[in-house]
Design goal:
The protein is mainly alpha-helical. Helix content is about 60%, strand content about 5%. It has a 4-stranded mixed β-sheet, with helices on both faces. The chain starts with a helix and ends in an 11-residue tail after the last strand.
Length: about 475
């Protein structure tokens, strides 16, 4: 009995993670694609496997694993999409949690700290934008390979400088955050006194060489890149992204209730913040002296390096995931300091867990609703069109509010700019969709009618789909004077 109790104390976080994984998997499979999910390379792909896009630089990124997933989903879209993607994400997140547990033990943290931190990483709402998304397995597996790379870096001796760069490269082929671990591995190892200052300088130089080699490879590979304006860096954008990163990583509150105007409920938002605040205060505010330690400074630097690609371009709640292992390390390091008075930490953590579960369930519900909105719109578009068409011109009337990450999407984003309709027709039609957004003004319906009439008179498209909130109107040459549903 004593041995059983000891095992339970040592591994309770792993037990709960394994018990919750099937529940999380079931919940995630119910989330349907929205927005970028319909346009990513993980969507069903029907091209031959041995093509440039499946192995070399493609679009914005060099992520062959994404295209392989899309190829697999394309073998049976109705069965595999998005279920296959969700399985990879949830199982990957679970594996990442188990690797974090192993990493924390390897770094010498106490069992209580390890368990609290591991369970924190698994259920914190900061992971939900990644865990519930359809196309985010690249983020999860990049972190998996990165943690494995760190373990190899600290444990392997003879082949260290072969295995470590190889694992960094594999992580990078999942997502570019993996490349940052070429610098993170030596810096984090130095913070925990695993390597010396001399070795740090040498290995940082090697890390820089690894990064340079990657960009040289990018430069010589065949590519056709059009940089979207959202990805262009700028000082103001970096400041905004830094603020977003800080709030999403270190403050646990229901951001849907707090920020999304149509769903705003400040009372419930305050409740989730009040429940989580004691634990977060214990972790990040009560032991400010820890921020002077080499270990803490290195952890924070590693976190900034990990999320740097997003800080310089675009940062959303999904991108928080790359920096969360270092938030976990900060929590483990702080919890260790309370070894003589752990009861308040445990009590506050239980309140945090309650807050996290409330937020997670709400975020999941909003994700499901967004996906269902897109599906309803796709079915309506197909039904009203009434026949297979080759080309569609999509006119979207601008919405009065913005989306919130992948949880609360704008209806035409949930519709995937018309791409969701292809799924409803088993990817048989339409072959071409051209979309545009018009400003919502007093005479917007007259403008849309004129645009629709012009497109149809020119015979350049078979029909016009007009998106007004969640409503779809279909105009074709037989109904060119149809009235837009208001």
């Amino acid at each position: 009995m004593k041995n059983y109790n000891r095992q339970l104390r040592n591994y309770w976080s792993i037990i709960f993670v394994c018990l919750l994984c099937p529940i999380l998997l079931y919940a995630a499979v119910l989330v349907l694609p929205t927005h970028d999910d319909w346009a990513s390379t993980t969507t069903p792909d029907f091209t031959p496997f041995f093509t440039k896009e499946h192995f070399l630089f493609y679009g914005y990124h060099w992520r062959p694993f994404d295209t392989w997933i899309g190829y697999i989903a394309g073998r049976n879209p109705r069965l595999l999409y998005p279920a296959f993607n969700h399985c990879l994400v949830v199982l990957g997140h679970t594996l990442c949690t188990l690797l974090l547990y192993r990493l924390l033990n390897m770094l010498g943290f106490r069992k209580t700290s390890v368990n609290i931190t591991t369970f924190f990483f698994f259920i914190t709402p900061a992971t939900m934008a990644t865990v519930l998304a359809v196309d985010s397995q690249n983020q999860v597996f990049s972190l998996i390979w990165s943690i494995v790379a760190f373990m190899a870096y600290t444990k392997i001796e003879k082949l260290k400088y072969v295995v470590w760069p190889l694992l960094i490269f594999i992580a990078t082929l999942s997502k570019e955050n993996g490349l940052m671990w070429a610098l993170i591995c030596p810096l984090l190892a130095y913070g925990f006194d695993i390597i010396s200052w001399k070795t740090l300088k040498k290995d940082l130089f090697i890390g820089i060489i690894i990064i340079i080699c990657y960009f040289v490879a990018i430069a010589i590979l065949p590519k056709d890149i059009t940089i979207h304006p959202e990805y262009t860096p700028g000082p103001l954008k970096v400041v905004k992204n830094f603020i977003k990163m800080g709030f999403s990583s270190f403050i646990t509150v229901d951001y849907v209730y707090l920020l999304h105007a149509p769903k705003r409920n400040l009372l419930l938002a305050a409740l989730t913040l009040i429940l989580s605040a004691p634990f977060l205060c214990y972790m990040f505010l009560r032991k400010v002296s820890l921020y002077k330690q080499k270990k803490t400074i290195c952890i924070i630097l590693c976190m900034l390096i990990a999320v740097a690609p997003h800080l310089l371009t675009i940062f959303s709640m999904m991108h928080t995931y790359a920096g969360l292992p270092f938030v976990a390390l900060l929590i483990a390091n702080t919890t260790d300091e309370y070894k003589d008075n752990i009861k308040p930490i445990i009590a506050s953590f239980l309140l945090f867990v309650l807050s996290a579960i409330m937020i997670d369930i709400h975020l999941w519900h909003e994700s499901v609703e967004s996906g269902l909105t897109g599906k309803r719109m796709a079915k309506e578009a197909v039904r009203k069109t009434g026949r297979p068409v080759k080309s569609v011109y999509l006119i979207m009337i601008e919405e009065d509010f913005t989306k919130l990450s992948s949880f609360c999407t704008i209806p035409y984003d949930a519709f995937g700019w018309g791409l969701a309709a292809r799924y409803e027709t088993d990817y048989k039609w339409p072959e071409l969709i051209c979309d545009t957004i018009v400003e919502r003004t007093e005479d917007v319906y007259e403008k849309v009618s004129a645009m629709s009439r012009q497109v149809l008179q020119e015979n350049s498209y078979d029909c016009v789909w007009v998106v007004d909130h969640e409503n779809i109107d279909v105009h074709d040459n037989q109904a060119i004077h149809s009235v837009i549903h208001r």
